[in-house]
Specification:
The complex is a heterodimer of chains A (about 90) and B (about 290).
Chain A: H1 8-23, H2 44-58, H3 73-88
Chain B: H1 3-33, H2 35-41, H3 46-70, E1 74-79, H4 81-84, E2 90-93, H5 100-105, E3 112-115, H6 126-131, E4 135-136, H7 140-152, E5 157-159, H8 177-185, E6 188-197, E7 215-221, E8 225-226, H9 237-258, H10 266-272, E9 283-284
Parallel strand pairs in B: 1-7, 2-5, 2-6, 3-4, 3-5
Antiparallel strand pairs in B: 1-9, 6-7, 6-8
Helix pairs in contact in B: 2-3, 7-8, 8-9
The chains are: A mainly alpha (about 90), B alpha/beta (about 290).
Chain lengths: ~90, ~290
């Protein structure tokens, strides 16, 4: 599974699957403006889980710092886009 | 009770409540400077000292609960107390009042607790809490690691999964840390529900606002469940923690929904008791 070069919309679709599988969330809850901790009720352990899963999906070595300031689903998409564009070239 | 008698009783309970708050503070200081250092010095082995100090906490809290009862502030009753003394489990309780820790430790001679990390900066209390092997409430994974380590050593650990006292009238908000601890330690979870009637000493309620009558604390110890039951093939710990947390909430809610606001009480409280509790285990403290 690769998300390299995909649009934001495609990455969001992908995240819907990942987040609903990982945390039993409803796909319709997963919108770009949803806050991970407040709206989606993730905790720090979940964040680690998500981080490891994204590492698998992107197939890249992700540094934890890349996700340090992630607050919303949109931030996650940004971080993935940034990571994949950085290392793809 | 006549109107005047009721009023007198009310004034008495305000006075007595103020007195026991002072007693608790002064007593904690006194014991921390005398009994606990002596217990620590009574052995070279830090693990033996840990157990002796936990026993010391247990007796102190037991005496404190009895003081409250004798002064007419409260009555209390613990169903299934024997189960609290079986070691090596994560004991999870709801948290309606300020007295919950005192009440539960008064029933458990040996139990590890999570306490405010600020106590480690208190010149008097930092030593007793570290000698007792209590855990500071540090953040996130480090705390989960510390807690599961103590459970794997065979200790009991008391946790309030809500993280702080319940705000009456609001939905109970559960943190998932307790579930993560139980899963990481692969241990059994013992659910304990506490009901307080009439509600008092809850979050945001000042001590001097004593309830209309002597309050009753009723503790029901449920049946232990293995945390691994909530793990399913192919699922990560995140999902298992959600299921386990949901299960805890169901246990607490059963008791909470049966907790009456005021008025008709004892019949409803009796209903809280799970039918699995052996009558022989009943410990009546009234």
């Amino acid at each position: 599974m690769s998300v390299t070069g995909k649009s934001r919309e495609e990455i969001l679709d992908h995240l819907r699957v990942v987040l609903s599988d990982l945390f039993e969330l409803k796909p319709e809850q997963i919108v770009p403006e949803a806050r991970l901790y407040d709206d989606l009720d993730l905790d720090s352990i979940d964040a680690v889980d998500l981080f490891l899963t994204l590492k698998e999906i992107t197939g890249r070595k992700i540094q934890p710092q890349a996700f340090k300031d992630v607050r919303t689903v949109s931030d996650v998409i940004d971080a993935i886009q940034k990571l994949t564009s950085q290392t793809a070239g | 009770m006549s109107g005047a008698g009721r009023k007198l009783n009310h004034v008495w309970r305000i006075f007595a409540t103020g007195f026991v708050f002072v007693l608790f503070g002064v007593g904690a200081l006194f014991i921390s400077l005398t009994v606990f250092p002596l217990l620590r010095l009574s052995t070279r082995d830090s693990d033996t000292a840990r157990r002796r100090i936990q026993h010391g906490m247990h007796f102190t809290f037991r005496a404190f609960m009895e003081t409250l009862r004798v002064l007419g502030i409260l009555t209390y009753r613990v169903d299934g107390a024997a189960r609290l003394r079986e070691p090596g489990r994560l004991i999870v309780a709801n948290h309606p009042t300020l007295l919950d820790v005192v009440l539960l430790v008064s029933q458990m001679p040996e139990v590890d607790c999570i306490v405010k990390r600020g106590l480690w900066r208190n010149p008097f209390l930092r030593w007793p809490v570290s000698w007792a092997g209590y855990l500071p409430n540090i953040e996130g994974e480090a705390l989960i690691e510390e807690c599961s380590a103590t459970l794997r050593r065979g200790h009991s650990l008391l946790v309030f999964p809500e993280g702080s006292r319940t705000v009456p009238g609001k939905a109970m908000h559960m943190q998932r840390g307790a579930a993560h601890i139980a899963l990481a330690a692969d241990t059994e979870v013992l659910p304990v529900t506490i009901a307080c009637d009439p509600p008092t000493l809850f979050k945001g309620n000042p001590w001097y606002r004593v309830p209309a009558r002597r309050f009753h604390l009723h503790v029901v110890v449920g049946a232990p469940v293995a945390a691994r039951q909530f793990l399913r093939d192919g699922d990560g710990p995140s999902l298992a923690a959600r299921r386990l947390t949901q299960w805890m909430l169901t246990q607490f809610d059963t008791a909470r929904n049966l907790t009456p606001d005021a008025g008709a009480v004892p019949a409803a409280l009796v209903g809280v008791r799970s039918p699995s509790v052996d009558e022989a285990e009943l410990l009546k403290c009234q």
